[in-house]
Amino acid sequence: MPSQTSNAAESETQESTARKQKRKQHCEKGTRKLSDESIQQIGICKYCKVDIPTVHASTSGLKNHLVKRCKSSPLYGGSNENESQAVLTNETMGQGNALVPHIFSQKKCELKLTRYVVIDEVSFRAVEGNGFVGLLHELQPRFRIPDRKKIAGFVYDIFLEEKAKIRSVIGEQRVSITTDTWTSIQNINYMVITAHFLDGDWKPHKKIINFTKLTSHNGEEIGKMVEVFLREWGIEKVFSVVDDYAAIDYLKRRMKSENSLLFEGKYLHMRCVCHILNLIVKDGLKELDSSIKAIRNSIIFIHSSPSRLNKFREFAVLAKFSITSTVSMDVKTRWNATYKMLEVALKYRRVFERMAEEWFPFINYFHEADEKDKKRLGPPVADDWENAKTFVHFLKKFYDATLELSASKSPTSQLIYQSLIALQVEIERKRLDDSDPTLKKVAHAMKLKFDKYWGNWDNMNHRYLLSISAGGGLCDALFDDVDAQNEEEQLLDISNEVDKYLADEIEKRSNQYSNLLEWWKGNENRYPIISMIAKDIFAIPSSTSLVNGKKNISNEVDKYLADEIEKRSNQYSNLLEWWKGNENRYPIISMIAKDIFAIPSSTVASEAAFSLGKRVVDPFRSCLSPKMVEALVCTSDWLTSLARLLLAWEKDLWILLGAV
After folding, report:
1. 441, 289 Cβ separation under 8 angstroms
2. Residues 556/179, Cβ–Cβ less than 8 Å
3. For 324, what's the count of Cα atoms within 13 Å in the CB-facing half-sphere?
4. Cα dihedral angle (307, 312, 318, 320), rounded to 10 degrees?
5. Which of 340, 413, 504, 511 could disulfide-pair with 467, CB 3.0 to 4.6 Å?
6. Does pTM surpass 0.70?
7. How many distinct structural domains can be found in the chain?
8. Residue 252's domain spans which residues?
9. Residue 587: Cβ-neighbour burial (10 angstroms; 0-12, 13-18, 19+)
10. Which helix (H) or strand (E) holds 204?
């Protein structure tokens, strides 16, 4: 016992001596000698440049200064605490305000700082700013702030780490991919590839897997690039590709040779629905160009100076509007901005009409020549306002459809056919309506563009019919209001064509699925469209469940097709929640539904879905190497939650539109 006590005391003495020596070294490193006298030394703190008198051969005065007075010192404010000592702090990032132990960690702080740079999209140089450095020193003096080069290295480390995590999950899924292009301010083109899939918990995922410099716009070259990226990520099962490039032809050939495609790739390629809707709306806008310009010029006038805006508000008050009234200007490349501009301007129609009668500067503005030396259109007359009114009402259906189809938080593939048919019916009604010649002309222009892409059912991807079936038996909705146009007969013809193709696929595998083929031959005429999902099930070549339980599968299909359609309830308000709850009831069909619901209908998110312009890389990222740009874009996408993304898109959109 005495020896153990002696050893413990000796060990404690050594530790205490080591701590004192370490403290002394820190103090000595924190000063440099100015003069050397026999009794007293004068030191200067290298952090705050303050003179420190001290007794010869003693560092106590220096220590007190560094620990208690110098806020720039790494020893200030926490020198008596061990780095591993926990302190109680509020859990601000959680749901409550519970006190939790917090231990300072240099590595954790570096990680948080790196995530801040990535998620909030700030430049690497920001971590070296005087204000930022001062703030962090005040918050945690012990934190040694890494420079921008280290931050760049940390970003790439996180990129590789997160990439490995996602790769381990995504390689097991059948994914749908989208491609799009972005441009930097140096006119460097980038191609972004996004993977869409549903996980085992039926949660939708949208992951940017590549953001790479585009060296060629040749379709085959793009296809080869996509092929390399898919191999790099270990993606072997591709369900659909949504893009507008000829790259799909090369991918189809390569994947078909590897037997990794369903339907031999016949329905692999899908167009971006929102992009085509943009083209249709733009053609309609051209027909109302003069009325839109007259209203736009009026809004440009009131925003040309503060005094003019104030005068507009005076007229607005006379018409019993708020003193803060205003009308936002549009952005010509975003038709939703034009839609919103017209919608708000119509509310102030009486204000603009009174201005055109009483305010001479407003009247004279339209007699002046514009920058092209042409007389300005306006002010808007009654016909212009009526055209805008009817067009806004008509355009709202396209606005709502674009928002719905560009959503990334919920499945959209089951909405495409019914949305397109509803829009087609609306266009046809306006085209046949002789009471409004102007809108009839608009509808005619939009119909020409609509028919170019979707006028023939053969030009559309029939796989979306499967999503309608999986979406709750909405096939009857396809035939609402379209009998006069023989759409039902056309759909049934397409259904029979797909039936024949899929029956041929089953024939090829008849030795393996003989009893399934017999079942299908006895039931193929019962459900002309919904039954296609059953055939899609049989066309999957490598399902263990199919091999081991053919009879069970046919019973499952019978059950699915015969079961009554359930009405949506609070419990199953979400389509994916319904399928998750019925996964055990339809185990094989649910596998197909999961692939179908992962198909995106748009290559871009909601905010960008209204634009025909190019997506642009911001100036900060444009000055970086393509390798680092990819790391930043991908990592930001992976680290940022979907809810945060949607909030940011909504915020940017309202700022853009100048919402009131």
Report:
1. no
2. no
3. 2
4. -120
5. 413
6. no
7. 4
8. 155-271+604-657
9. middle
10. strand 204-213
